Amino acid sequence: MGKDKIWLSSPHMGGNELKYINEAFSENWIAPLGPNVNGFENDIKNYLGEASSNNIEVAALSSGTAALHLALILCGVEHGDEVLCQSMTFAASANPIVYLGATPIFVDSESETLNICPEQLEIAIKDRISKGKKPKAIVAVHLYGMPYKVDQINEIAEKYEIPVIEDSAEALGSTFKGKKCGTFAKFSILSFNGNKIITTSGGGALVTQSSDSKKKAVFLATQARDDAPHYQHSEIGYNYRLSNISAGIGRGQMEVLDKRVEGRRDMFHFYVNLFRDVEGVKVFKEPNDDYFSNHWLSVITIDPEKTGGVDREDLRKCLESENIESRPLWKPMHMQPVFTNNPFYGTGIAEEMFKNGLCLPSGSNLSDRDRERIQDAILNCLKK
Ligand SMILES: *Cc1c(COP(=O)(O)O)cnc(C)c1O
What is the longest distance spanned by two Cα atoms in the chain? Predict the structure, then answer.
């Protein structure tokens, strides 16, 4: 019997996506603007705004990476500047810093949320200031959907007056103290890439709390055209707006976001149960009730000394041989060949997590049969 591939995280359509796409076709809105773009922005605005006392503005863009690029520009980041960035993240959190000719300064994680460590962040800020450059921004990430230590990070950011850019690419639907991720900073970004909790096939959004910032983001994202009958430009612009077709997918996906969060969290509970009595494997959980993760990806750490020698790679290969995708935790940026010369502040937490951590299949569309296959593969591997 051929076994279908079980993916780490695959798209999961809700049903109404095609309705919105068909509307775009019937009205000939085949462009990076139109009713679906506006509708999608409104849907996100209403969703994030629900539990927030702040005004929420959303600019739909072609990717989360584009949103980060614009957020950095809006924070005034320029050539020669330094920007603090969580090391344990996906490369897209750091790359746009380099697009601007600025230098990412990497900061370690703490072990409770896997996100940017407040102590190391403050050490880094003080050291960079003492070396003569105050960092222009802090890129903090809610990795795998787990909120970072919002209160502590905000406190440090306010103390040193450095804006935070909240990378919520993996955390749509997560909350901290009842408030939604994506609403904790002056600028937040979302991603709707194909592997995220909801998708537009490719897409992203910049979330801000000021309508002027939104206006400026849309201006920059549409080639920075001055108000004139001819094409006139006083600034360098970008082609970063979301297509009205993609936004149609997004509108359909927003209708089922709550269900997708439920589905991902069900997978997390499945793993909690599966590993309940397994020595040496820990499922990564919220540290306390302030945190609510969408569990975009379920994460485990493996201690080979307690599993009878089975380590992270052994388990990954066992799953692979059963056509089940899993992936080591994101390799920290300070360990990446492309960033070897960038400063790093830390104590080895991210390195340790990278060594022993594994992301398991977490899609909201996995069937009972898929779960059985995952369970069998894991338990067989651990028995060896
Ligand atoms: C996916 C992702 C991004 C980038 O989003 P794209 O839409 O793929 O450009 C940025 N940061 C993190 C943490 C991500 O997971």
Answer: 72
- Ligand 1 atom closest to Cα of 193? 7
Query: What is the pLDDT, as a whole number, of residue 384?
Result: 66
Q: Are residues 54 and 30 in the same domain?
A: yes
14 has a pLDDT exceeding 90: yes
Residue 372: which residues within 8 A CB-CB, separation 6 or more? Answer: none
Q: How far is the CA of 63 from the centre of ligand 1 (A)?
A: 8
CATH classification at residue 178:
3.40.640.10
Ligand 1 pocket residues where CB is under 6 Å:
63-65, 89-90, 92-93, 141, 167, 169-170, 191, 193, 204
Asked if 104 and 98 count as a contact pair (C-beta separation under 8 A), the reply is yes
Q: In this predicted structure, what is the pLDDT of residue 383?
A: 85
Spatial distance between the Cα atoms of 227 and 206, rounded to a whole number of angstroms: 23
pLDDT digits (tens, 9 = 90+) for 329-364: 999 999 999 999 999 999 999 999 999 999 999 999
The rounded Å distance from CA 199 to ligand 1 centre is 12
Best substitution site from 62, 69, 93, 166 to test ligand 1's pocket, by max atoms within 8 Å of Cβ? Answer: 93
Please indicate, yes or no, whether residues 266 and 247 belong to a single structural domain of this protein: no
Which protein residue has the closest C-alpha to ligand 1 atom 8?
Answer: 193
The Cα–Cα gap between 119 and 123 comes to: 6
49: containing domain: 17-256
Long-range contacts of 122-129 (CB under 8 A, 24+ apart): 122/156, 123/345, 124/84, 124/343, 124/345, 125/84, 125/156, 125/160, 125/162, 127/345, 128/82, 128/84, 128/343, 129/160
DSSP state of 191: E
pLDDT given at position 1:
53
Domain total in the chain: 2
Region of residue 88 (left: phi > 0; alpha: psi -120 to 50; beta: else)? beta
Query: Three-state SS for 37?
Result: helix
